[in-house]
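The freezer alarm interrupted the setup, so I double-checked each line after restarting. Inputs confirmed:
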Amino acid sequence: DSGVTQTPKHLITATGQRVTLRCSPRSGDLSVYWYQQSLDQGLQFLIQYYNGEERAKGNILERFSAQQFPDLHSELNLSSLELGDSALYFCASSVLGRPDEKLFFGSGTQLSVL
Amino acid sequence: EDKVVQSPLSLVVHEGDTVTLNCSYEVTNFRSLLWYKQEKKAPTFLFMLTSSGIEKKSGRLSSILDKKELFSILNITATQTGDSAVYLCAVNGGSQGNLIFGKGTKLSVKP
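Predicted 3D structure, all chains:
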């Protein structure tokens, strides 16, 4: 158990809908990362937060948004969902969000868009 | 464009075999290379490599980095069925200093 908690574990929804994925980092970690894993693309970096502020942005679609709250948990909001958004979404955390730190991953949220 | 390429994409071996997984990269602002093991869901950390030629070991697993030739290998000796997993290579670098992952090598160890 990495100590990173993600909910829900599974989510099934329809095209056009909006969903929210939640992540609680390891105790003491200030930085949260979101990754998307699909069969053909592998793990793709979406966005990183550090202590409530956005630190880095990757290949995140405009339909997606995220935030990190004062208690350090983070939410990833996906809207106007398309079939291609079906994927495993991972949250990871690290202490300071520095490049020399290893990341600890949660178990992911499996999103299925029908 | 920054990229991390792993080979082979999949591998089937028998218990007791030794395997070598490869990871090559072209990433600007290289900081470190990491190996993760992904069994069911969450990738779990194996190694972080920052310096060339220094082997990191953990039990039957070992890894080494060559920063001149831009690659790393992950060796697993005396494989066991519990080693069956997807092994992910990731490089910390790029314009934003985040982890860039390869697509992984799926290892299947048969009894």
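Quick read of the result. Chain A touches chain B through 24 residues (CB under 8 Å).
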